[in-house]
Amino acid sequence: MAIWQYKLHIIPKKAVLEQYGKIPSVIFVDHQSWEAYWKNVQYDGNRFPNPDFEDAHTKNWWSNTKVVVDELVKKVDMCVQRAHWDKGGEFGSYYWKGTTNLLEDHDAFISYDKETNSISEFQFRADLRNEEKALRFLNAMLQLCQELECLVFNVDGDLFEPDIAFILKDIKKSRAVHFLKDPEDFFDTLEATKNNEASFWNKIQALFK
To answer: Which of 22, 105, 122, 174 has the fewest Cβ atoms surrounding its Cβ within 10 A?
Structure first.
């Protein structure tokens, strides 16, 4: 994830209501367990094992929501181009990727079960470097979320209706905007924590070598 990107996960509103009986402002993201998971996980060359804890990322929000994946994919195609590595759903996933050097480094991802046609993950990231292009992409994806009767949550689990006003307010507090507005202060802040995180990220990088 590029530092200039803002990330949102898409989940059905119905599933949230079934889980909580209302729409909470925050859903739990277990950052501590994720850090422990990535420190200790063993990659078998094919896939990572499922985490043994539940949070907003591991819960299957889409299990009781019927979506025609092929139709959904066509709608995302209208928002952002396919990634060059996309295999057309061959392996139960679709990837989209904009053009980085045109300040359109937007992307999206869908993972689904090919046998049941059930989605397991749906997310997107907006490149914030160009306001006009970012708004165009965000509005298109949020409109799609509205059509699907979905909500979105950010990296900390803050939950939102797919309304651009709410999202823009959250974007102003994001790491991406911090970097774009004041890169020097951003890296000073990053420097203060990097010693604690260095071994963690070295472990992650080593998994792919």
So the answer is: 22
